[in-house]
Amino acid sequence: MEDKRNIQIIEWEHLDKKKFYVFGVCMTMIIRVSVYPFTLIRTRLQVQKGKSLYNGTFDAFVKILRTEGAAGFYRGFLVNTFTLISGQCYVTTYELTRKYVSKYSSSNTVKSLVAGGSASLVAQSITVPIDVVSQHLMMQRKGESMGRFRVHATDGKQPVMFGQTKDIILQIFRADGFRGFYRGYVASLLTYIPNSAVWWPFYHLYAEQLSRLSPNDCPHLLLQAIAGPLAAATASTITNPMDVIRARVQVEGKSSIINTFRQLMAEEGPWGLTKGLSARIISSTPSTIVIVVGYETLKKLSLRPELVDSRHW
């Protein structure tokens, strides 16, 4: 096992893969249910013109709850659950890439940087079509839409469940063809590859520095639970401008990242690049704690039996 200043790192070869994937899917679903409302709020804040609908994260939360009910926070959630597949591809790519890079470098920062970026590239290739559909569903407000497409009512009633999804998919295909499902793909890569590549090195950096400053008997899991949100806040702040552009490209149907950036700057100035940042950080803090604690616990639960017996964790 790799031990960086008392922070033990369980690598891919130490895991029972069957346990790892089963526990991983369950953990990921719990996380998604808990943070999805703030994902929806963040997307709506990023897409709206100025403060035309919401004045901020709290205002958006109150207004959505009042006008759409609790169910309004979960528009597009069922579609979004298909990203569980990309989530498992992400962790697999991350761990395998770390293992490969370790042949050429023993630096934990280098391994995390390369593995995080590679994992995000693979995951986004699967996730973008799901994100495009789910984001258009997020834009469906009561009786209207904030995006290009609007779910059509049938006999005065809104189609439910996957009826709405089918409606949006057909509208995207009619308007843009198959390419419409990969609208904003480059913007997504420019958002999430740097986000992932930055998060992992900062996470290990903060964990190592906290380990140096903390008493020897301080639990490693506590240090990791603090380091995770710090890394998430850092990565979110760095990559939020591109995340705003990504959301607008995908929801508004724009084809150019540069033109979207110019329009945003002309309409709202540099402040527009910070839209949704607070919601992003708020959602990332509890979710990152759960992810870090859960992921580290997941890896310990998935240790091969002989390693559990041979060493205390």
Describe the structure.
69% of the residues lie in helices and 3% in strands. The protein has helices at residues 17-47, 57-68, 77-80, 83-101, 108-138, 162-176, 185-213, 220-252, 257-268, 277-301, 305-310, and strands spanning 2-4, 7-9, 140-141, 144-145. β1 (2-4) and β2 (7-9) form a beta hairpin. It starts with a strand and ends with a helix. The strands form two sheets. It has a two-stranded antiparallel ribbon with strand order 1-2. Strands 3-4 form a two-stranded antiparallel ribbon. The protein has a single domain (2-304), classed as Alpha/alpha barrel (Mitochondrial carrier fold), CATH 1.50.40.10. It is mainly alpha-helical. This is MGC79800 protein. Belongs to the mitochondrial carrier (TC 2.A.29) family. One of its GO terms (cellular component) is membrane. It comes from Xenopus tropicalis (Western clawed frog).
